[in-house]
Amino acid sequence: MKAIKLFLPFLILLVFISCKKDQNAEPETQNSKLENSESTEKHFAIVIHGGAGTIKKENMTAEQEKAYTEKLQEAINTGYAILENGGSSLEAVQKTINIMEDSPLFNAGKGAVFNSNGKNELDASIMDGKSLNSGAVAGVQQIKNPINAARIVMDSTRHVMLSGKGAEDFAKQYGITFVDDRYFFTEKRMQQLQKAQGKNKVQLDHANIENDELVDDHKYGTVGAVAIDKNGNIAAATSTGGMTNKKYGRIGDSPIIGAGTYANNKTCGVSATGTGEYFIRTVAAHETSSLMLYKNLSLKASLDNVVQQIGDLGGDGGMVALDKDANIAWSFNTEGMYRGYKKSNGENVLKFYEE
Ligand code: ASP
After folding, report:
1. Phi, psi of 227 (to 5 degrees)
2. What is the pLDDT at residue 151?
3. Burial per residue of 122-144, b for 16 or more beta-carbon CB atoms within 10 angstroms, e otherwise
4. What integer pLDDT is reported at residue 54 of this predicted model?
5. Alpha-helical segments (H) within the chain
6. 247-304 pLDDT, tens digit each
7. Is 187 exposed, middle or buried (0-12, 13-18, 19+ CB in 10 A)?
8. Is residue 258 lining ligand 1, measured as CB closer than 6 Å?
């Protein structure tokens, strides 16, 4: 009797603990699943591109190589530091793109190409792979960093894309930096326009495109970034000046969710560069995700499949991507693509030319 009295409190404690355990073993709700996945620290990574095209070693000077190497590495490091400090993939891709938008080396922000009227019309988009929330701006002319405006469209409206004056009027309310036309003027881009317009009078590369349509000089300096953060959330973003000598009002793939940009935590994040019309027609970035989801293809096989589809239609360019396990891949059918990545396992790669 005395022994029972002695052990009774322990027995009660044991029963209590096992009940508690059972409660915890209840089926996971959506929220508990979310918390579990968010509390497990995963690999993080960022992959970027600075455009695809006729990028050949023999056409590059040592200074040019150095300039691209330094700027691309700075962009990668910016995003990587955000991820390393526990920041979101959305923040990482946005800030990474800002570095490239502020450089004249790329066809985005400062280095944007001219349209047929000698004006700059910029497009950008960003997507959150966790919620599938997205934001985009198209045809903006005075926003210094279009990706920042795209982010605000995503965060502060129920819309996905705003264009032209409406996008600019909206962005003004959010402290976005505005610049006048002169900011985007670079001698190099003006020469490209003049060359393109000169060619235009003669003939275009594309036999199936009317003379007054796109001039495809096989140089695409669009910038893109895709990241996965410590919580396993994927984000993708793309920013561009479009294509040299494009008709005014033309909108490419870069601001179109599913074409130039896509992110989905279930599959991958993708950013594209190339002749935008073909990426729109193949819904390239989303097609990559779908091939993974429905056909169980690997990230690389999915990208190759889509780039093949684009090539078969007569388009060129490429895509960079990463999947939910932080695997990185890219694919392109041009001679080169400025590209690179950094992963939490210490890998840091930068490449310009064909593999
Ligand atoms: N994809 C962009 C567009 O068509 C161009 C580029 O990648 O440079 O607007």
Report:
1. -140, 155
2. 98
3. bbbbbbbbbeeebbbbbbbbbbb
4. 85
5. 2-24, 30-39, 62-84, 89-101, 146-156, 164-172, 187-202, 276-281, 284-295, 299-313
6. 999 999 999 999 999 999 999 999 999 999 999 999 999 999 999 999 999 999 999 9
7. exposed
8. no
Active-site residue numbers?
222
Residues in the chain: 355
User: What is the phi/psi pair of residue 188, to 5°?
Assistant: -60, -45
Which among 240, 332, 338 is the best mutation to test ligand 1's pocket, defined by most ligand atoms within 8 Å of the CB?
A: 240
Using the atom order of ligand 1, give the atom closest to the CA of residue 241.
9
> What CATH number matches the domain at 45-353, 3.40.50.970, 3.60.20.30, 2.60.40.10, 1.10.10.10?
3.60.20.30
pTM for the model: 0.84
**φ, ψ of residue 351 in degrees (nearest 5):** -140, 150
**Which tokens go with 32?**
């508990």
pLDDT value for 196: 83
CA distance 290 to 308: 15
The predicted structure's pLDDT at residue 300: 98
Closest among 303, 328, 267 to 45, alpha carbons compared? 328
Unique residue bearing structure tokens 């326009």: 193
Contact 51, 273 (CB under 8 A): yes
Q: Is 242 in the pocket of ligand 1 (CB under 6 A)?
A: yes
**Do the Cβ atoms of 333 and 317 come closer than 8 Å?**
yes
Strands 134-140, 122-128: pairing is antiparallel
Q: Give yes or no for a contact between 113 and 58, defined as CB atoms under 8 angstroms apart.
A: no
Q: Is 224 in the pocket of ligand 1 (CB under 6 A)?
A: no
Assess whether the C-beta atom of 318 lies below 6 angstroms from ligand 1: no
Show the tokens assigned to 320: 């960079």
Query: With contact defined as beta carbons under 8 Å apart, do 239 and 100 qualify?
Result: yes
